[in-house]
Amino acid sequence: MDKTLKLRAALLSCLLLLALVAIWHVATQTIAAGDEGLDPEYAMLMGLSAESEKSGGFPTPAEFGASALGHLASPFYDNGPNDKGIGIQLMHSLWRVGSGFLLAMIVAIPLGFLVGMSPLLYQTLNPFIQVLKPISPLAWMPIALYTIKDSTISAIFVIFICSIWPMLVNTAFGVAAVRKDWLDVARTLEVNPLRKAFRVVLPAAAPTIITGMRISMGIAWLVIVAAEMLVGGTGIGYFVWNEWNNLSLNNVIFAVLMIGLIGMLLDLMFAQLQRKVTYVE
């Protein structure tokens, strides 16, 4: 039954995709027909002139497919600062996200353990967490650029500051929610605190910790695009902004699709990890 359900869902997803592509095709054909009567000067101003090599208006599915195949055929070319393949841009973004996320893990998970196991520490740090957690990560960017004076490290700092809170809160919650009778058994057996943390608390809190990491990764990947638009240089966010300045909607749409696909793969990776550490009582 489960396999049948998955097969039906996959079939419906394919039909929905075909319907969306058909709507896209009809819409772009209608726009193209409407553009025929535009004033040439206005069309040129809007990037819709026939002579323009950068943009022919909103692309049709066929035009987009040809452009996407061109990007995928040579994803790692490097023709200078403003002309790099999509693979290079994604590698820069993933490196920044991975660096900031790893730093957040190093800080958030141990601190979350301490907060979850100590009601006093929780009450002490909770006001700071509640004040800092809702601040938009991009609000930190001007401060980071002024103090750090390096765009790459500033972007990593933004990833760090946006990734730390979901991991910290979920780790503290998971540790605090460990069943009391398990802790009582460990106390009865006189298990030392370090062994108790790794053999009792960590396995019990692991699903919640992974959930926090999954949320943090989603936020980090969301934020890096906007951060790279601000700092420039390299990365998928800079690629989107640069192609928009070039009036290349084909490339912008392709980059948006790649952002979504990479985000989905990262989420699936953490979902798989979460299934491996989840246990049935």
TrEMBL record:
Regions that span the bilayer: 101-122, 154-178, 219-241, 247-266
Similarity comment: family membership: Belongs to the binding-protein-dependent transport system permease family.
Protein name: Nitrate ABC transporter permease
SUPFAM superfamilies, sorted: MetI-like (SSF161098)
Topology of this chain in the membrane: Multi-pass membrane protein
Residues in the signal sequence: 1-32
Cell compartments where the protein resides: Cell inner membrane; Cell membrane
Organism for this UniProt entry: Halomonas colorata
Gene symbol of the encoding locus: ntrB
